[in-house]
Write a structure and sequence with these properties.
This protein is an all-alpha fold. The protein contains eight helices and no strands.
Length: about 230
Amino acid sequence: MHQKQFETLDQNLINNSKEGIRYLLKLTESNEQKNKYFIQQKYVKYQWIVFSILLLFILLLLLIFIHLRNRKKDFFSKQEEYFRLKTSELDTDLLPIEDKREKSKVIISKETEKDLLLKLKTFEKSDRYLNKDMSLALLAGQLETNTKYLSEVINTYKGKNFSAYINELRVNHIAYLLKTEPSYLNYKVSYLAEVAGFTSHSTFTTVFKSVTGISPNAYIQQLTKSMKK
C-alpha cells in the first residue's frame, strides 16, 4: 500500500513538474514575442525618424537650390541692364525712375534728385567705381553734392547702401569683361579682384558670390562651357 502511495505521489510530482515546465516555456515564449514586437515597433519608429530627417534634408537642399537659381536669374537679368547701359547713350528721359521718397528722412528737391540720378547714371557708364579709394565722400565731391543727399538717393533709388552699390558695379564690370573679352577667362581670380578695385582676393570672391550666387571660378567655368558649344 505504501508503495502504491509513493508511486502515486511520485507520478503527481512528475506531472506537476511537467506542467511547471510547460508553463515556464509558454511564459518564456510569450515574453519573447512581446520583446520581438517591441523591437519591431522600435525599428519602425526609428525608420520613420530617419525617413523624416532625410525628407527635411532633401527639402532644405531643394529650397537652397531654388534660392541660388533665382539669385543667378536676378543677376543675369541685371547684367543685361548693365550691358545696355554700357553700350547705349545716356537717356535723360528715363530719370527719375519713379518717386520712392515716401520713407525718405532727408528732404531733397525733385530737381536735385533728378540731377543726382543723372550724374549717377553717367558715373555708372564710367569706370571710376574701380578706384580702390572710392568712398561716399569722394564720390559726393565728384558729383558736387553732399554725402547725405548722395547716400539718400542711392538708398532710395538703388535699394542698397553705398558699399553694396559700388561692389555690385564692380562685380558687373568684371562679369561684363569676362563675357565680352574671352582673354579675361584665363586670368587668375586675384588679378580680376585687382582689376575690379578690390583690395583682397577673398573680399572679391565673397562679394562676387553674394551678388551672383556663384563663385568667380564657377562663373568662369559656366562661360567657358557656353562658349565651347
